[in-house]
């Protein structure tokens, strides 16, 4: 009697759960079908752990997954020819006190329109806007609509705020501060090393970096075509120097460079640039890389990756604010022949910064 009763109870419960499930399923599919059409898609790059492990083994770069990518390709359902060229910006979305925070997107939109007018690549290169924080929907779509290029908004919060291994930002103060306490250092770390480890970058061969506080002057030819045709590895902006009395510890970068050369028995490919680094007492040279074009095959070479790791592990970026510009200069001096570096001024191309 008791058993029959509990059996009936169980049956009732199961039917009730089943009905509830059906209702839930109905509302879920109804919501999916009839929900407001999403104007851009979130491309959550969810790959299985196995794939990631395989990738890591095969590739010398760490292939960091970017969790949030808003892509115009999906937004407009566009079918464009895939390209090996990419133009990269980095900006910070407004955070904190919104009344005081600076919103970089309106100016970036202007720069993107200008880029389309001035760069003679027929708007074929992709545009990646690396950003921290959360741009408003309107910021994203206004830029996507302003250009015929394929645009990708890539959130880099998951790597941007990282420090070199073993560096403790809590017990130290920086020798240089701009925006937040460590923001400038993070920016240098990003452009020197982190950007090349992002998975999204792996599909490209040439990357042009541009900053939102700079402008191309006049019409530019297709620099991607030029670097490829001339089989060059880098297009450099003008030479500048960092002074040790402004950035204490800047010249210590020579020690790590020397140690690296000795350890790996390297013959620097560019003796003139190397001499430029070592022959000045308090100055460290750099190319002002707020604009640069890089053949990414350069930084995919094992020894270049090793050098970037050495620099990273020395913690000099955070201890002494070694900038990505002098670090790039040293990388070029170590690994690139003079003939493989093209110069904007020799190409007759103008650029201003800040402007
Ligand atoms: N997301 C993010 N971007 C930054 C930050 N600091 C600088 N940037 C970007 O990095 C680029 C270079 O920064 P900038 O301050 O102009 O460097 P400077 O020209 O070397 O003084 C600019 O395009 C900025 O938008 C930051 O803290 N967060
Ligand atoms: Mg700047």
Description of the structure:
- This protein has 355 residues and is of the alpha/beta class.
- It has one domain: Spore Coat Polysaccharide Biosynthesis Protein SpsA, Chain A (Alpha-Beta Complex), CATH 3.90.550.
- It has 14 helices and twelve strands.
- It has an eight-stranded mixed beta sheet. Strands 6-12 form a two-stranded antiparallel ribbon. The chain has a two-stranded antiparallel sheet with strand order 8-9.
- α10 crosses α14.
- The radius of gyration is 25 Å and the shape is globular.
- The N and C termini lie far apart (88 Å).
- Bound molecules: guanosine-5'-diphosphate and magnesium ion.
- Magnesium ion binds next to loops.
- Guanosine-5'-diphosphate (GDP) binds next to β2, β3 and α7.
- It holds the Pfam family Glyco_transf_15.
- One of its GO terms (molecular function) is alpha-1,2-mannosyltransferase activity.
- InterPro entries: Glyco_trans_15, Nucleotide-diphossugar_trans.
